[in-house]
Amino acid sequence: MGIIKVLTVVLSVGLVLGHNHNQQKEQDAKYNWWQHEVFYQIYPRSFQDSNQDGIGDLRGITSRLEYFKETGITAVWLSPIYESPMVDFGYDISNYTNIQPEYGTLEDFDALIARANELGVKVILDFVPNHSSNKHPWFIKSVARDPEYENFYVWEDGTLLANGTRVPPNNWLSVFSGSAWEWNDERQQYYLRQFTYGQPDLNYRNPAVIQAMDDVMLFWLNKGIAGFRIDAIIYIYEDAQLRDEPRSGATDDPNLENYLDHIYTRNQPEDYGLLQHWRQLLDNYSATHDGPLRIMMTEGYASVAQLMEYYEDANGVQGPEFPFNFDFITELNENSTAADFVFYIQRWLIYMPHGHVANWVMGNHDNPRVASRFGPKTVDAMNMLLMTLPGIAITYNGEELGMTDYRDISWSDTVDQPACEAGRDNYKWISRDPERTPMQWNDGLNAGFSNASHTWLPMNPNYRELNLRNQQVARRSHYKNYQSLLKLRQLPVLRNGSFVPEVVNRRVFAFKRELKGEHSLLTILNVKNGTEVVDIGDFIDQPNRLSVLVTGAESQYRVGDRLKAEAIELAPYEGLVIQLNKRK
Ligand SMILES: *[C@@H]1O[C@H](CO)[C@@H](O)[C@H](O)[C@H]1NC(C)=O
Ligand SMILES: *[C@@H]1O[C@H](CO)[C@@H](O)[C@H](O)[C@H]1NC(C)=O
Ligand SMILES: *[C@@H]1O[C@H](CO)[C@@H](O)[C@H](O)[C@H]1NC(C)=O
Ligand SMILES: *[C@@H]1O[C@H](CO)[C@@H](O)[C@H](O)[C@H]1NC(C)=O
Ligand SMILES: *[C@@H]1O[C@H](CO)[C@@H](O)[C@H](O)[C@H]1NC(C)=O
Ligand SMILES: *[C@@H]1O[C@H](CO)[C@@H](O)[C@H](O)[C@H]1NC(C)=O
Ligand SMILES: *[C@@H]1O[C@H](CO)[C@@H](O)[C@H](O)[C@H]1NC(C)=O
Ligand SMILES: CC(=O)N[C@H]1CO[C@H](CO)[C@@H](O)[C@@H]1O
């Protein structure tokens, strides 16, 4: 009896331990899922059309969800899908809790989430708090001085000059040029709009606005999303005293945005407080609901010091899980040296407060694509870089295929608002249409994007060669490279390994990822247009046991090839991921 009892105790201790272990794993899955995730940005208008109107839609996305599973992507973020007059393609919202009819219905959205859940794909939504549309009922009621909405926007009288002319309250400028203040005849006041006149700024100094936006977040959380990407966070608050901004000295044209130094309209201290409030809302929600931690990522082009304040402030108060790191877009380009790359990668890691996770944005809908920014031959190397750095990787749709900008869109086909405003002679290099052309699925009609006779943006004519189908059947391709990198990312050494970089020379850099008990990995990139033969013997401790793990589509190497650390030959723009085998 005694023995049985002991056994029972041992068994139940074992069960409890096993249980605890599982609980730990569950806790990890719930709270840490995002820390090594690849977030794939879908630009819904250009992803997949399902109803032949030439515009991508939710049912189209749902029909493509298996593609993510096949590729190894388990989280996507969607650019805005909310009801909108589409002055700025969804970044001007007229109802935060409805779907834009051309994208579908709330039922379509529910179906998308249900299918995504089945496939294990988490969905993040874009949240655009900086302003609503002027067609939003809140704004219409605010104009009419409905007491509930009277102060939902930033209204000011301006100044009446001695000669009877009325002028705005201060010198603030719109991002799209001219005064940021728009006169409203009906209310006889100016409203603030940092973008177009159709995008009035919400007044976050009014608690009712914060409550209304909390309700919007809860509405979508209840639909089963995994969090938000928050747009244009640096524009949310403005100086309460409405002080004039000083001249920047950058231009003499007083209508241009950069005429002023935006010390009173960008990155105001209150922005951080609002994000901290939203973080609490999301954390509370996650704690009281099943499912993963609901996370928040923010878009804001700001200095590295300002960005780090988003992770957590000086008092340790937590903001978003991560602010987007745009260094690959804003700091590095086709002319960057190996040292530039290492410098900016290290800068983020060094500034980042302890206990936080790095992230790397390789592209988005507002900037030229990788193939056009760094050159078409760099596509594979840049994806190797993105996927083997520590932390989170962010891919813009089409970058896994190496899609290129379609810069030759005609003036009459141009639809991007700032490009249209720039006029026929200047639109071409300003336009964001070139990186927004539809996804290139195959070489059929409109690349498989749509059966419509006319698509909202023209297809990039290179789709006949450059498309997913071709890259799936090819023995080697950008897509296959991307796919194998995603598989490789499962390795503990890429999840948790240390990061040690080396500038080999002006043109070549490398970094090691190392984790106790695991093979080390080495990523090496040639960022210039010449063949390089480099010696990295001093950088690694296992000089003779290097084997190739991932190669570009056009590489001379094959997976499994052995390399000699003293003489690694790299073709122009070549990247390699190499395994450093332990010596027996
Ligand atoms: C937004 O759309 C939803 C769903 O159609 C509707 O119930 C709600 O009243 C609308 N909200 C506003 C502020 O118009
Ligand atoms: C009034 O004065 C302002 C500032 O000097 C000037 O810009 C504006 O044109 C004047 N308006 C009229 C009606 O004279
Ligand atoms: C989150 O929960 C805490 C504790 O219940 C509460 O004090 C706080 O107000 C909540 N915050 C938000 C934004 O919901
Ligand atoms: C790179 O250098 C070339 C030659 O100086 C120049 O024409 C080009 O504009 C530069 N590219 C960038 C992105 O600065
Ligand atoms: C286009 O039509 C073909 C033939 O009916 C069909 O197989 C395909 O799914 C359609 N594609 C789209 C994007 O609607
Ligand atoms: C990575 O490290 C974290 C904490 O340091 C740990 O919880 C996790 O299990 C590790 N993951 C792997 C794959 O080693
Ligand atoms: C790279 O060099 C080759 C051969 O000299 C040349 O044809 C090509 O235009 C160069 N590419 C770039 C992006 O400079
Ligand atoms: C950074 C930025 O400008 N983000 C968005 C804020 O809103 C404007 C106007 O809708 C958009 O054009 C931007 O993309």
From TrEMBL:
Keyword field contains Signal: yes
EC category:
hydrolase
Which InterPro entries does the protein's record reference? GH, GH13_cat_dom, Glyco_hydro_b, O16G_dom_2
Provide the alphabetized UniProt keywords. Answer: Glycoprotein, Glycosidase, Hydrolase, Signal
Where the record annotates domain Glycosyl hydrolase family 13 catalytic, the positions are 41-436
Signal peptide range equals: 1-18
What are this entry's molecular-function GO terms?
A: alpha-1,4-glucosidase activity
Q: EC number(s) on record?
A: 3.2.1.20
- GO BP terms, alphabetized: carbohydrate metabolic process
Q: Name one Pfam family in it.
A: Alpha-amylase
The UniProt entry, under Gene3D superfamilies, shows:
Glycosidases (3.20.20.80), Golgi alpha-mannosidase II (2.60.40.1180), Oligo-1,6-glucosidase, Domain 2 (3.90.400.10)
* Record keyword Glycoprotein present: yes
Catalytic activity field = Hydrolysis of terminal, non-reducing (1->4)-linked alpha-D-glucose residues with release of alpha-D-glucose
- Family recorded in the similarity comment: Belongs to the glycosyl hydrolase 13 family.
Family annotation (PANTHER family): ALPHA-AMYLASE FAMILY MEMBER, NEUTRAL AND BASIC AMINO ACID TRANSPORT PROTEIN RBAT
Protein name per UniProt = alpha-glucosidase
